[in-house]
Structure formats: C-alpha cells, structure tokens
Known about the structure:
CATH class: Alpha Beta
Distance between the termini: 22 Å
CATH topology: 2,3-Dihydroxybiphenyl 1,2-Dioxygenase, domain 1
Largest sheet: 8 strands, mixed
CATH architecture: Roll
Amino acid sequence: MPLQGLDHYNVITRDAEESAKFYVDVLGLRVGDRPPFPFPGAWVYCGDVAVIHLSQTDDVPEGSGRCSHVAFQAQDYADMKRRLDGAAVKYDERVVPGLGLTQIFLETPDQITVELIFQPEDVAAASA
C-alpha cells in the first residue's frame, strides 16, 4: 500500500507564534524544529512528530480554507508517479530544504490539496 499514514495538517495563519502558543498552552503540544523554508511559520509536535505545520502570511482565507492541505507519508515513489501520470493528475513536486524529502502536491476532485511525502532513498531508487 503506497500510503503509510497521516503525516500532518497545515494551517495558514497571520501569526504563527500566537497559533503555536495555543497548541502548546491549550493542547499540551510543543514547538520544535522546522526546515529553513523561505516563509515564516512553525512546526508543532506531538511527541516526536510534527503534526501541525503553521504557515504565516498576511493573505489568510476565511473558514476551512485555512487548512491548506493534508499530508501522507508515502512509499514507492516510481509507482505513485506512474499512477498520477496515467490518470492525468496534475501535481507539483518539491524537495524540503535541509531534509531531502520529496513532496508531491495534488488536488482531489473536491479541490482539497493532498501532499505525499517520500523519503530520499525511495526517490533515489526510482532513478537508479
């Protein structure tokens, strides 16, 4: 099975520090390491897993639009790319700075963005 489990959800916020404080003070989570993305934000951890990614911007949508995407840990990068290409699904591929994880972003028919996260060794095996 290509999907391994839910990884995190991302929230668009005007104030990442204030949002993180809520998750820490109210829910007992903790703020932890975050890759050096070119935009402000914070990662909030439950144990050793960054379950909430906060992305800070002045252009914040109202309501559920604040949850920008749902992410899954995935495997078999080559097979997933074949599946997406075979179904003519448009996607955007990125590499996380400092971590080397490959992200594939796509939209469901309901316009919900899904992120698939692949480990570097999985991606390297696909090009070998």
